[in-house]
Design brief:
This protein is mainly α. The chain is built from 4 helices and no strands.
Length: 107
């Protein structure tokens, strides 16, 4: 009986660790108006990395394969979480592009 309990706890821990987390960004942030052109470009580049990680979390990964094998709702959750992160990044990048244009920054 004790072995079964240990196995159950271990399985739950593995399933919970299989969930990928994606960084969420705020579309509008305090201090946006004070950003310099260089800071806007820097944030945009950082968002590219966040977007890439979110896209990777939607694809085939160890976490997603484990989630599908052991607990398929976790795989669905990973996909939906990554999709939400992508949407936020896309919206933030639009805000940054608008600020870049309004400030007259050049490429």
């Amino acid at each position: 009986m004790r072995t079964v309990n240990i196995a159950a706890v271990t399985t739950v821990c593995v399933l919970l660790s299989a969930c990928a987390t994606n960084q969420k960004v705020s579309v509008n942030q305090l201090g946006d108006e004070q950003l310099s052109c260089a800071q806007i470009v820097s944030q945009d580049r950082e968002l590219d990395e966040v977007l890439e990680k979110a896209q990777n979390n939607k694809g085939v990964s160890t976490a997603n394969v484990a989630a599908v094998i052991f607990f398929w709702p976790a795989a669905v959750g990973n996909y939906m979480d990554a999709d939400k992160a992508e949407q936020l990044v896309t919206r933030r990048k639009t805000v940054l592009a608008d600020m870049y244009a309004k400030k007259g920054c050049s490429a």
